[in-house]
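Re: weekly structure request thread

Next one in the queue (244 aa):
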Amino acid sequence: MHQFQIATLIPFHVGGVDLSFTNSSLWMLIGTVLSIVGLTIASERKAMIPGRLQVGAEGLYNFIDNLITENIGAGAKQYFPLVFTLFVMVLVGNFLGMIPYSFTYTSHLAVTAGLALMVFFTVLIIGIARHGTHFFSLFVPPGVPMWLLWLVVLIEIVSFISRPITLSVRLFANMVAGHVLMKVIAGFAIMFASVGGFAWLGTLLPVAFNVVMIGFEFFIAFIQAYVFAVLTCIYLKDTMEIEH
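Done, posted below.
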């Protein structure tokens, strides 16, 4: 499990608080630089007949634009920078984790919880700023009988508060589970190879399975970034018009 261990690269403490630069910080910095440089280069030419990089950047832009329009609706453009940044950060983090000897920063709950809490408080602050106390009418669905209202309100409150937990744990758990599974399967291959003789033939199955798993993990890496962005859009929709 060493691939999930936080290693201090540059120690730094302030008032007893550990603010050291770690391997997680390093790979987040690498992901940020790659994202900025890659998108800058891709959109630099703005050619009428785009090259492959420009097509990719424009495709990514249109993908997120359609995503927020479909899930938030009118006025969704204002949230484009937030959703686009979150999607790219999670996607790049997931993909970087597939590089041997790298570090998957999205496999740590502290990172995913930080992103989820940012989304949660963004929704809460903007919702209250726009609608005042009427924002809390989200917890009172229309048409609920009075005798059942207290239970429904309680369920809605618990559901609202649990959003950061579900948003962060889903991403963290999927990244950890996939990497651990590949590590375990690779361990079987090493075990067969170390026996000697014709036992090395036993490595073929776990190696083949791991090849398939690598492709599947790239797919999961994209899906988890997509789900994170979709749920963010759904939560941000609460800051728009409240119907009741």
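The chain has one domain: 2-239. The two ends are 50 Å apart (CA to CA).
Next request, please.
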